[in-house]
Amino acid sequence: MKQEDHKFRLGQVLVVCAPSGTGKSTLISMLREEFPDFGFSVSYTTRAPRGEEQNGREYNFISREVFVAMRSRGDFCEWAEVHGNFYGTATKPVEKMLDSGRDVLFDIDVQGAKQLKKTFYKGTFVFLLPPSREELVRRLEGRGTDSADSIERRLNNAIGELSQAKWFDYWVVNDFLDEAYQELKAVYLAGKCKPPLRPGILGNIQKTWEDDG
């Protein structure tokens, strides 16, 4: 992006969802490596820090009472309860990055994505699809980290997640990694050109006709 383009372009919210084992983490890592300027919002959580985690770095660690108060005020653009602990993403830091022209990437589940859709409806929502159930089983088994029960649970979850794919903006099938990455990259770059994210550029170009006249 040209340096002078910053005043004409708002940042893009890019949301990527996929069933476990589809290869989402790999594709997102490839995208971050090529485009390292993605914004990152530090989430809030009510769970205790683990190991060398630091407040404000991995998470903003807060009490359950504070989290509930923030939720009641509508401070979160998405939140969830996982294993008895709350997790949430604050809206204002994300909006600040977007207003500065910085893109923000969300690696999130479909329920969180549906919440984000309400706040950041101008965003780009991508669902990654496995090529088949058989291939998803092969990949889950190949990781060597999941028990048979865990794999079966992930496959059952995948059915529900796939049923939600219909409301996403784009589908990318991760059959061949390089091809899937090129599609994800193309979706991201196309999203940067959406008219709502470039609110001033058309008027500025039109003005050059007046200036030349």
UniProtKB/TrEMBL annotation:
Its main location: cytoplasm. CDD domains: GMPK. ATP binds at A18, P19, S20, G21, T22, G23, K24, S25. It comes from the Bacteria. Keywords: ATP-binding, Cytoplasm, Kinase, Nucleotide-binding, Transferase. The keyword Transmembrane does not apply. Its EC number is 2.7.4.8. It is found in: Cytoplasm. SUPFAM superfamilies: P-loop containing nucleoside triphosphate hydrolases. Pfam families: Guanylate_kin. GO terms for molecular function: kinase activity. Residues 11-189 form the Guanylate kinase-like domain. PROSITE patterns: GUANYLATE_KINASE_1 (PS00856), GUANYLATE_KINASE_2 (PS50052). It catalyses: GMP + ATP = GDP + ADP. HAMAP family: Guanylate_kinase (MF_00328). Essential for recycling GMP and indirectly, cGMP. Belongs to the guanylate kinase family. This is Guanylate kinase. The gene is gmk.
